[in-house]
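anyone seen this seq b4? input:
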Amino acid sequence: MQRYLFGRLVSLALSLLMASLVIFTVIEIVPGDPASYMLGLNASADTVAALRDRLGLDEAPPLRYLHWVSGMATGDFGQSYTYRVPVADLVGQRISVSLPLALYALLLAVLIAFPAGLLAAARRGRVADAAVMGATQVGIALPNFWFAMLLVLAFALRWRIFPAGGFPGWGQPLAGLGALTLPAVALALPQAAILARVLRSALIETLGQDYIRTARAKGLTAGQAVLRHALRNAMVPVLTIIGMQFSFLLAGAIIIENVFYLPGLGRLIFQAITQRDLIVVESVVMILVFAVIVVTFLVDLAYAAIDPRLRKRG
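predicted toks r here
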C-alpha cells in the first residue's frame, strides 16, 4: 500500500507542475494588457509603462512564472491588479460559498441517485426500471440554468419559500443554507440523473456474476443480493463519476452562480477575465485544478480500499 501511495503522490506532483505550466502559458498568450485596461484608453504610454513596471508585468515570463509558483508554494498567490488586495483573501471569501454549494449539490445528487439506481437495478425490465430511466433521461436533457429559473419562479417568486438570489453570509447558518438550496437543487438534478444511470449499469453487470447467482441460490432476494454483495463491487465506476461531479460542481458552476448572483469562485473568475486581472485568473484556476487533482487522488485511494487488486497493479 505504501508503494501504491508513493506512486500516486509522485503522479499528483507532476500533474500539478504540468497544470501550472499550461495555465500560465495559456493566460500569457491571451491578448490584452492589464495595465492598459486598468488605466483606460486615454492613458499615456509612459503611465501604462510605469504601471506595468509596478505590477511586475515587464519581467520575463519565465521569471514571472517562477515567482508565481514559488509564491503559491508558500501560500502567497499575489495581489489582485483590480481589487488591490491579496488573491488569497479573495479566494477565501469566495470559496466559502462555492465549496458548500458543491458539497450540498453533490449530497443531494447522491441521495437522489442511489435509491433510484438501486431500484432500477433490482427491478430491471419492470415498470419501476422504466420510470427511473425515463426520469433520468429528462434530468440529463434539462439545461440546469433553465431549471434554475423555473425553481426561482416557483419557490422564490410564487411560494416565497427560498430567496431568489444573493448570499447573506454564514453569520446566519440557516439563511445561508436556504440561499444555497435552489442553486444546489439546480446543479444536483443532472448529476443525480447521470449517477443513477451509471449505478444501475454497474449493478446490472455485477448481478450477472457467478457469486451473485450463488447468493440468490442460498435464498437471498434480489434486493438483499444487491445491498450485501453487488453494491460494493459496483462502486468503482460510481466513485469515478462522483469524483468528476464534485470537480465539475466546484469549478463549473459559473452559470448557476450568475443566475442566483452568488459571490463564488465562478463569478470571481468571470469578473477577473473581463477585467484582465491575470493573477486572479491564474491563481483561482490553479486552485481549482489542485482541487480536481486531489479529488482524483482520493478516488484512487478509495479504489484501492474497495479492490485490493488495484494496489498490486499500482
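The two ends are 9 Å apart (CA to CA). Residues 109 and 191 are 6 Å apart (CA to CA). kinda curious what u guys think
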